[in-house]
Design the sequence.
């Protein structure tokens, strides 16, 4: 594989000489022609890869953007900067704080490519070729660590990109890639290079993620007319609000959007923009996302803008919307969703019960049972509810408590007795479906993610949600209830065969 010449000397480095042996077709002999510069560089890299050393570019000469000379050397060429300074410090009695190792040992192996224009040939020719190295070459089992054998190709980039969208860490991505490609010998990159690539992606996005997000929204709109999005910019041209929904979300809304739950959540992105999805229940009783938005604040103006764009995108407004007791939401709903019945989340109200009732009174378990039975029941009429409520207030001395007075005045906003005549009024009584949805999305997102990472995580979560719904549709279409099976057996036993046409 290699010939050793002990007579060759080079400075203070080991006295060793190696001449690579390989197939004659791979040797870049002087006079060899290449049509392009890239072709010549690739040829020398292939020679180095086959013989066991790394290469690097060592400058060039150009005339009017045309490279006339290109120099390629062994990556162990030259001497590391700082070695002479360290030696001077050592002679003068100084101790340097840190001394790093270096691969460079003054190797003279090199090749130079010259641009020529002779006759009918225009391209590059090998002008000089030195094949002698002053170091041993890399053995075959270790060549997978060579820089020339470590390269991020399209397979790596696609796999890393998909894992990034799925919110998978670089370490786990490398483990999956290792298993996918068949082991460390064939993976082609190191964990450090993978991390650097992911870091490079994030650095590229940094500072321009809002614009990239809007560009992605515009691209989706151009690809599908059913996709809708709207956005607002602030005084300093920053992204203030963003609303979006796709064609399938619109379809789901027209099927299941009579009652909509709306709630906001935080800690989904580094800019603290408020993630606000519109959620409903599908035919399986599972959460289904109709649309989503990112808001910079929870003001009435922001909610009014959002509800207006939601109706414009979807067409008809929902018949009922369930929210918490946020005043900004309430004012926006009254202004924009004029014909929509607004309902407060019962769970949020009942959760405050323990804080509003005097501690001595709260110890009475009968009070809790009576209030829950009165409030949650959908069987009693409004008049019966009012009588029962006032009776509880008088028995337990809660008549003068401001919170109970306020809740009674707003009873038509949250008590089920006042929604008895509303179609599907009991379908969604709390924002728990929204909170469950928000919790689901947070499993796919990270608090410090930028907007590009967030939208990728959202898309992945939405795809997972739709995949689960599709599986339930499949189960429903393939499983027959027992009573139906008996009916089929009855028909098969007593009906006559159908005649073929």
Sequence:
């Amino acid at each position: 594989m290699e010939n050793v010449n002990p007579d060759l000397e080079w400075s203070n480095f080991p006295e060793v000489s190696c001449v690579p042996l390989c197939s004659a077709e791979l040797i870049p002999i002087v006079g060899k022609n290449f049509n392009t510069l890239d072709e010549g560089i690739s040829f020398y890299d292939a020679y180095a890869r086959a013989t066991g050393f790394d290469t690097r570019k060592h400058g060039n000469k150009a005339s009017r953007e045309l490279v006339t000379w290109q120099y390629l050397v062994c990556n162990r060429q030259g001497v590391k900067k700082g070695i002479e300074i360290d030696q001077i410090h050592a002679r003068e009695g100084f101790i340097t704080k840190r001394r790093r190792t270096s691969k460079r040992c003054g190797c003279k192996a090199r090749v130079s490519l010259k641009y020529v224009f002779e006759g009918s040939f225009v391209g590059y020719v090998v002008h000089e070729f030195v094949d002698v190295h002053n170091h041993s070459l890399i053995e075959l089992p270790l060549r997978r660590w060579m820089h020339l054998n470590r390269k991020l190709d399209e397979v790596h980039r696609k796999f890393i990109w998909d894992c990034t969208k799925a919110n998978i860490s670089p370490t786990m991505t490398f483990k999956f890639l290792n298993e996918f490609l068949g082991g460390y010998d064939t993976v082609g990159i190191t964990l450090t290079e993978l991390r650097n690539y992911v870091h490079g992606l994030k650095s590229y996005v940094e500072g321009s993620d809002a614009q990239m997000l809007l560009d992605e929204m515009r691209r989706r709109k151009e690809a599908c007319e059913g996709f809708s999005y709207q956005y607002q910019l602030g005084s300093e041209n920053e992204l203030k609000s963003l609303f979006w929904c796709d064609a399938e979300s619109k379809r789901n809304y027209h099927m299941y959007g009579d009652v909509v739950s709306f709630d906001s959540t935080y800690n989904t992105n580094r800019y603290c923009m408020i993630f606000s999805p519109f959620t409903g229940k599908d035919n399986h009783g599972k959460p289904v996302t109709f649309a989503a938005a990112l808001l910079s604040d929870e003001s009435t103006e922001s909610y009014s803008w959002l509800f207006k764009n939601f109706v414009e995108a979807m067409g008809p407004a929902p018949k009922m919307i369930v929210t918490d007791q946020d005043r900004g939401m309430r004012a926006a709903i009254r202004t924009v969703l004029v014909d929509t019945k607004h309902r407060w989340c019962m769970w949020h109200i009942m959760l405050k019960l323990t804080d509003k009732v005097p501690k001595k009174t709260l110890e009475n378990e009968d009070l809790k049972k009576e209030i829950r039975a009165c409030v949650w029941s959908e069987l009693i009429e409004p008049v019966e509810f009012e009588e029962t409520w006032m009776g509880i207030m008088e028995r337990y001395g809660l008549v003068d408590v401001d919170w109970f007075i306020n809740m009674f005045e707003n009873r038509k906003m949250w008590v089920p007795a006042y929604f008895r005549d509303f179609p599907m009024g009991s379908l969604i009584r709390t924002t728990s479906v929204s909170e469950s949805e928000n919790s689901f999305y947070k499993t796919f997102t990270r608090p410090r993610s930028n907007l590009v990472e967030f939208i990728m995580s959202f898309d992945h979560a939405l795809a997972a949600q739709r995949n689960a719904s599709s599986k339930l549709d499949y189960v429903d279409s393939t499983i027959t209830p027992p009573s139906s099976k008996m009916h089929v057996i009855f028909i098969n036993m007593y009906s006559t065969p159908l005649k073929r046409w």
